[in-house]
Fold:
Amino acid sequence: MSVVQDERRCTSLVPIVNGPYNQMMSEKGKRFRSLTFTVNLVLVLALAAGVGLVMASFTLSLLSSRDLLTRSNLLQQGNIIYASIANFMLPGNAPLAVKFVGQISLSSPESTISLYRRDGVPAFSDNTTIDRVNSNLKQMKFISRPILVPQPARLATPRFKEATGNPPLEVFFREDQGGRTFFRAYRPLINLPKCSVCHGADHTVRGVIDIRSDVTAIIRTQNLTIAGGAGGFLIVVGLLAFFLGSFLRAIVLSPIRAIGSLCAKVTSGSFEGRIELRSRNEIGDLARTVNQMVGGLRERFELTKYVSRGTIGALTEGQKPIRVQRTMLFTDVRGFTAYTENHDPERVVEALNRLLEKQSEIIHEWGGDIDKFVGDEVVSVFAGEDAATRACNAARDIVRLCAMRPMDFDGLAVGVGMASGSIIQGMIGSDLRADFTVIGDSVNIASRLCSIAKAGQAIVSDGTKMAAGGDFSFKGPFGAKLKGKAAPQRVWILEVKV
Amino acid sequence: MKLRMPFPLLTVVVFLAIGCAKAPEEIYAPADYSGWARTTAVVLNYPIPGHENRMRIPRMNAKGFTALPKRSDGKVSWDFPEDTVIVKEVFASAKPAPGEKPIQLTIMAKDPTDKRAQAGWLWITKDLPDGKETVFTGNFCVTCHANANEQHPYGDGNPNEDFRDFVYFVPGEGARSLLK
Structure:
């Protein structure tokens, strides 16, 4: 899509962020925030939240599964070893139990299995148990062995105490040591009633099976998986945000910007442009509506050239007739009828239009309003407290222009008449055709004075001369006998130095 | 200003409140448990693993005393009915003073439908005097009581290795009537 005559200019709309449209919107008191930014922000946040939740859930699930699986696995190992040891113990084959545990540890380098007495000393590291059993059985059933470890390290951690407490509990925990990670389980060995025959019944826990599994490699693999997932998540969010953002920009944002740009142009007074958008959707319909609206505005704007400012003002402010103080300025080309008879029509119209154009510029320059053109005659109205002064300035410039550059207008020159006073402003005509114009005595006097003024002469009424102040030089007074007036009117001739 | 809560939202809130409300906890050892009959006349003041050197008095509700063992293939098998509750009073020492209150109750409640049950029983501790009952989820109790189904050093020692449904002292009257 694009706006108006320069498609590329209108589609590359980045500068419009600071353009008149945005300035206009910013005037509402709120800081302008680009819709592109907002949409992209919402997209990224929504995607990050959505995909992030999935990723977080996946990660937590992975970690939880790992822990559960390892815990279950270690405790299951503990149960198997427990059952094995119990069966070794009952027939009095405790040393076999120790050997069995050692062999299991050797067969699985990632896991170490240790047996501890309830006091934290490694099982069978001395003869305490053997002596106790022999004492309980009141016979030397087991022969003392040489002490292999004179002062074995005692395990006395809070978790170990938890495992050997009453009630004894299975304990599972993570342990980081020397840059490696272990999962560890303490499985209490219960002093069952059938065990108490040999070991005595004064304690609840015989000892603890300690299973330690090195999970460094598993955790590293999982961390890599999680990091890969997180990286993939970021890439997916980025790509989705980019593609969705581009899609939205193409479908929604760019057309809206184009519409905004066109509206900004219209606001600044330019009606040259339209939005080229072929999409059949709500935005396409909006663009077509805006095009129609701008076209209508353009037509109305063109029409304003053919009506006076007073007429336009009456359309907006009301068409009720009013009596106002105004200075009327009439100009009329002298000898125009003879001129038209001796020259080609094209040349006549061309010269007349040039002259009317220049007169219009001067009148507008001095704040006057062209009420109408009547053939070669210009009827203009000046309003305001200094209306007479500005009207005299305009008359002076018109006379001076014709005198200084006669060839620009093929030798045509105008006579000027001005009068100030009360006039009636209103819609004059029928329902089918009407003009918003002025009527009244001052209008008639200005017209009559214009008709008697010679080429290059500006005649003003006494009232206008008085109102214009001392900045102008006037000849007179003269007595002018005007049509419709019984007594001669006191008039003056504006002196114009060329 | 009158606050209005949309009806669907109100419904959701009500259902959530109902759903999240904590269900009343079942009491397994009622206040009158001390009126229940003892399961054995043996004075349990000798040390055992689990309770060590503490006096124990096991009592069972009337439902438990309706259990009758079955005999098949030369073995006696017990299956205590659902809702059987055995409360074992544990005292602070092996020789409690007359009128001394127990410090703890350990409870077996037969409820195979409860997902916390182990071997058909709920294993519960009730610390006194606060009276809070806690269902034990570890396997310590059931592991120890599994020995009741084998030969063991208590009471009659279960010489025939009858299945006694994890109870060391089954009602002697019932057993005798079957063994006659």
About this structure: Residues 69 and 150 of chain B are 16 Å apart (CA to CA). Chain B has one domain: 29-179. The longest strand of chain B covers residues 104-110.
